[in-house]
Task: structure prediction
Amino acid sequence: MKANEKVNILMVDDQPAKLLSYEVILAELGENLLKATSGTEALEHLLKTDVAVVLMDVSMPDLDGFELADLIRQHPRFQRTAIIFISAVYLTDLDRLKGYERGAVDYISVPVVPELLRAKVSIFAELHRKAKQLETLNRELEERVAERTDELERRAEALQKLNNELARKNQELDAIVSTAPDIIFSRQADGARDYISDRFYEYTGAVTGSANGFGWLDFVNPEDRERSMSHWLRCVQSGDNYESEYRMRGKDGEYRWFRARAVPIRDFEGKIIKWYGTCSDIHDSKLLEQSIRDSATQLEKLVDDRTAALRRLSGRLLTMQDDERRRIARELHDGLGQELAAAKMMMDGILEKKSAQSNRRAAMDASEAIDRAIQQVRSLSHLLHPPLLDEVGLLSALRWYLDGLTRRSGIETSLQVQPPEFPRLGAELETAIFRIIQEALTNVYRHSGAQKAWVTLTHRENRMVVTIRDDGKGIEAPVAELHPGSVGIGIGGMSQRAKEFGGELRLSNLVPGTLVEVAVPFLTFAKEKAHARFDPVGNPA
Ligand SMILES: Nc1ncnc2c1ncn2[C@@H]1O[C@H](COP(=O)(O)OP(=O)(O)OP(=O)(O)O)[C@@H](O)[C@H]1O
Ligand SMILES: [Mg+2]
Result:
């Protein structure tokens, strides 16, 4: 009902004239006026339409006002319908009480004062209109409440679904976090940790929850603490991704290397609200990396040392070569040259002289000079490269060399071979061993002052050993230790030759005398032997 909508006013009186007069009085209210001349007619109106006020005569012939009021009130719809009684007779207080008991709301006595009647009816009409409006509003409100309730229920349902989904996701996340090999953590925007997975507590043995905030720092190695902490705080300031490596103490008290990484999570405005990160054990790979680095450094140093030694050696070698050339030139000039010059002079003498006897003498001298020259050419060429080595092998070449040395120097020499039927070793290894023995014996001759020298060759299961011993004055400690400043090209070359075959050179002072030992491992030796089997005379393929 709207604010200006008309309401129905029912006037009940058995006298039409009275009804007419009420109609006139109430007309100016502008409401709908309904008339009934009997109680029955009045009830019919009431059942058909909504009535705001019933104006009724107390005394009517068939159904008096009180009885009608009784009937009206019995009906639930009319419980609150306003009833105004009009009474021509004086009503006692008892009568009025009777009326109120039956639901009357007001009385008007005759003669009716028009203004009073209008005022009373108007108030009830207005009251009814307001009540109706209130009802409409209430209905609308209820509808709206019902709509809202529906919507809230729908939302609650959706929320419940989301909650279930979230719980499932949380379970999945828990499973991932608890099975992950890494430590997983989150940090607040200010950098304090607010979650660390169980992996951390398993590793450190700390009490659960104690690592939150900055408690985890207690387990970081004091040497790494300052560095990783200040780097972390810088990232919190700048919002850059965080990565750092530090050592963390385990429950056994040992430190292991970890790599921590964290990324910021931002809100819609780009403000950091949280950090998430992992902490992985990189100890083993870190150690491996370190040992690779160390080995590389060692290797570099070794290569440098070797390169320097080779440089020194090649320098000395060039000088040696020059010396050797000079010596050969001198030998050729002073020995071979002199002998040939003498032979030439003798031959020239033969051509000039006529006496047969003197010719014969000169020819004999010339022949001897030529013999000596031939001998010198042989010695020279043997020293440059012992031809016997190629033809009859290491042992025969050594015997020939030792004989020559004894003859030239007076040093007594001996050669012992074990086993006696010594195998061929291949051209390269045999040459190397020959040169090593030659150099060692040259040193004996030049430096030791020895009377005797012993050479042995032993072929045992997994290696071959060569020794050269003398009874001379022995060697100084720096030489025995192969100190680079103390050994010359001779020992340097011996050592180099041994290494080329995976072997090793050792010098020791025997008091009296010096022992030179060279050991070549079986593998290299076997390889050389394999070559030798294809080539019985030991020449390289
Ligand atoms: N059998 C030995 N008895 C005593 N001293 C020796 C013996 N062998 C070597 N030495 C000492 O070791 C030093 C180094 O020997 P090495 O053969 O390396 O050089 P070198 O003989 O002096 O010169 P080169 O380079 O011409 O051989 C010798 O100078 C010598 O003092
Ligand atoms: Mg020498």
About this structure: The two ends are 126 Å apart (CA to CA). The CA atoms of residues 505 and 518 lie 5 Å apart. Residues 443-444, 446-448, 470, 472-473, 475, 479, 487-491, 514 surround adenosine-5'-triphosphate (ligand 1) (CB under 6 Å).
